[in-house]
Amino acid sequence: MKKIAQLVRAGAVLTAYTCPACGTVLVKLKTGELYCANCERAVVVVRSEEEAQQALEVVQLREVRRIIFDKILQLGREIERLSASEMLEHLRSMNLLLEVYERLSRIHAETVRQKAPH
What we know:
- By secondary structure, the chain is α+β, with helices and mostly antiparallel strands.
- The chain has 2 domains: 2-43, no CATH class; 49-115.
- The protein is 59% helix and 14% strand.
- A hairpin with a 4-residue loop joins β3 and β4.
C-alpha cells in the first residue's frame, strides 16, 4: 500500500481494475498506463484476442528498443579505448543500431497514435 500511496501523491489515480498476477489494485499513471505497484510493472487491459495480440506486440517492440538502446550505450562506452580502425567499425555498428532504433520508435509512435481515442 505504501507504493500505491506514493504513486497517488505523485499524480496517479486508483482504478477499479486489479492486477491479474497478484490482485493488487491498479493505478493509472499520468502517462495513461495502468500500473501494478506490487509487481512493479505495467498492465494492459484487453477485451479481445486481437487486442491482446496488439498489446503483446507493443510490449515486445518496447523491449527490442530497450535492448538496442542498451547496445548503443555499450558501444559508446567502448569507443574511448579503441584504435582508429576499431573505432570506425564501432561507429558503423552504432549507426546501424541507431537507424533500427529510429525505425522502431516511429513504428511504436504510430501504434500508440492508432490506439489513442479520436
